[in-house]
Amino acid sequence: DTAVSQTPKYLVTQMGNDKSIKCEQNLGHDTMYWYKQDSKKFLKIMFSYNNKELIINETVPNRFSPKSPDKAHLNLHINSLELGDSAVYFCASSQVSGRSLKGVAFFGQGTRLTVV
Amino acid sequence: AQTVTQSQPEMSVQEAETVTLSCTYDTSESDYYLFWYKQPPSRQMILVIRQEAYKQQNATENRFSVNFQKAAKSFSLKISDSQLGDAAMYFCAYRRGGGADGLTFGKGTHLIIQP
Fold first, then answer.
1. Is B100 in contact with A92 (Cβ distance < 8 A)?
2. What pLDDT is recorded for position B11?
3. Do the Cβ atoms of A23 and A33 come closer than 8 Å?
4. d(CA A72, CA A54)
5. CA A113 to CA A6: how far, in whole Å?
6. FRET pair for B74, CA 20 to 30 Å: which of A12, B8, B42, B51?
7. Is the pLDDT of residue A99 over 70?
8. With contacts defined as CB-CB under 8 Å, which chain B residues touch A104?
9. How far, in Å, CA of B39 to CA of B51, rounded?
10. Which of A48-52, B28-32, B100-104 is the least confident region?
11. Which of A107, A109, A112, A113 is the best substitution to test chain B (most B C-beta atoms within 10 A)?
12. CB neighbours (10 Å) of residue B51?
């Protein structure tokens, strides 16, 4: 009964390929996110989705696109992968309305993407 | 834009001792949240403690407590009775109170526990 799950955990692919990372949350949260953690461990927000609407897109190349089929899922599609895309990608969810645990982000286990 | 600064890239503490990790932030908002997350070698991001800016009382969770100084924009984490399992990267994070903003993270502090 994992709260936020993402697949796959590891992904090795060649430059130029297109890949997707899936994320699902069973917490009933209203907002989901994608973060990128680089080789120096720095974490940066990429996207957030609230009620199927993209709220934030932080200077991310348009090769990256989030897709949310429903409130419980936020998948990350990456086109034309580049060496610099190698990183760990985290999915997260939180409840931004109401007061209970408001703002607390629950993270998936991360996907280590390696582009060769 | 909000920024979060962790000035200690690495800290070391003896098992059973107390250690304090520093964090400062910059914001013009009055409604916000502050967090400490732990990332062990397993890579999982684990919430350690959470502080709401409107609450003056410092948050505590068992051996973990914070010193929240709102005027100074400081949010340090104190770990008492350090245990080997506390060894991890610790990230300080900020989130604006309203809206669906994500977290703004500091660069992290690598905590080493000496047996």
1. no
2. 98
3. no
4. 14
5. 13
6. B42
7. no
8. 33, 35, 47, 50
9. 19
10. A48-52
11. A107
12. 19
The encoded tokens of residue B24 equal: 């400062």
pLDDT for the residue numbered B67: 97
Query: Are residues B104 and A48, on separate chains, in Cβ contact within 8 Å?
Result: no
> Whole-angstrom Cα distance, residue A116 to residue B22?
37
> Is the sign of the CA dihedral A50, A51, A54, A55 positive or negative?
negative
pLDDT at residue A79, rounded to an integer: 97
Identify the residue whose tokens are 């680089």: A38
Residue A42 identity: F
Best of B10, B49, B101 to mutate (most A CBs within 10 Å, chain A): B101
Question: Which of the 8 DSSP states describes residue B19?
Answer: E
CA B53 – CA B28 distance, rounded (Å): 12
What integer pLDDT is reported at residue B110 of this predicted model?
98
Chain B partners of A96 at a C-beta cutoff of 8 Å? 99-100
Placement of tokens 């989030």 in the chain: A66
* Tokens 């286990």, located at residue: A109
